[in-house]
Amino acid sequence: MELSKSQLNYILAIKQLAGGKVTQKYICEYLGVTKPSASNALKNLEELGYISKEGQKAGNNYILTDKSRKILDLIEQEKFEFMSLFFRTMKIDENLCQEQYNSLCGMFNREFIENLIELRENNYNINKNSMLKLSNSMGIENGVYEIPFQVIQADDTSRSMGDKGFEHPAKLICGEEVNYISLTPKEIYYKSKNEQVLRGRLQKLDYFDVNLNWITAENDENGNIIIPLENILYQKDCFGKINIGIIKIRATASTIKMPVSVAEITFNFKLIKKVENGY
Question: Reduced to 3 states, what is the DSSP secondary structure of residue 269?
Fold first, then answer.
């Protein structure tokens, strides 16, 4: 949205105070800000056409203009989509969702909200058309690419032991009908708590898909692990280009003494390198 978080707070305060006294004094008390800060902010919002005054007879009460009401309508949609995804669908604690939303309130642009609406209307399924649109947004042609990645521990950002269980880099395969990442497992060594050195290989890999289910990854004819692009979560840079892809995994090794581990794989789409024209 075009307003800063601070400016938006003043508009939200005027909305909450509407029906009573909405003077600078009461806005200061509501937001806990100083009179000079409020004076500058309100003057700026008035000049931008977001608020106006009702006049002396009304006690110089501030009111919202149509320009502000359009912003508030968008915020209502933003909150609905946020709570639908994280509280109603992902079942995250309602108070925690509300707390997190309050810190992000008004920071989603219209395009992002429209994408959330589309996801909800599709029951949070990403169909084939969405997958192809996602591939196009990467700005890459069909072919085979090398893509750097890291396996990091689920509870922090440090590299997981499982990172050594794969060949680096991975392969990114993009085509008209298929878009996926191929991981090649390799033998790993693991030191147990009693200092015993264990040797094993990845036996099974599950990934957390967009429908919030654990899915067992398929293998190709060479034993490589296949992760479809539509099940990866993406982060974009300031230019709207995909930067990082993230997927949650659960790995089981071929020796029972190695623990089942939960981790995340981060793929760096900024550093892909084309190796083949076909796939």
Answer: helix
How many residues are there in the chain? 279
Q: Which CATH number fits domain 5-64: 3.30.420.10, 1.10.10.10, 1.10.700.10, 3.30.70.330?
A: 1.10.10.10
Mind listing the pLDDT tens digit for each residue in 176-235?
778 899 999 988 776 666 776 667 778 889 998 877 789 999 999 999 999 998 888 888
- CB neighbourhood size of 204 (10 A): 14
Please tell me the distance from the alpha carbon of residue 94 to that of residue 76, in angstroms, as a whole number.
17
CA distance 235 to 109: 15
Q: What is the mean pLDDT of residues 131-147?
A: 67
Using the structure block, give the residue that is written with the tokens 């076909």. Answer: 278
Position 43: which residue type? K
Contact between residue 13 and residue 30 where contact means Cβ atoms under 8 Å apart: yes
The runs of H, that is alpha helices, within 212-264 are none
Q: In terms of Cα–Cα distance, which of 225, 269, 222 is closest to 249?
A: 225
- The structural domains of the chain, with segments of one domain joined by +, span 5-64, 69-124, 139-276
With a CB cutoff of 8 Å and minimum separation 6, the contacts of 9 are 31
Judge whether 97 and 201 are in contact, CB under 8 Å: no
Q: What is the pLDDT of residue 125?
A: 66
Task: Look at the block and give the residue holding tokens 């300031």.
Answer: 238
Place of tokens 């898909």: 209
Tell me the backbone φ, ψ of residue 225, rounded to 5 degrees.
Answer: -90, 135
- In angstroms, the CA 219 to CA 226 distance is 6
Fold type of domain 139-276:
Immunoglobulin-like (2.60.40)
How many CB atoms are located within 10 Å of the residue 267 CB? 26
How far apart CA 265 and CA 176 sit, in angstroms, is: 25
**Token digits of residue 2:** 């075009």
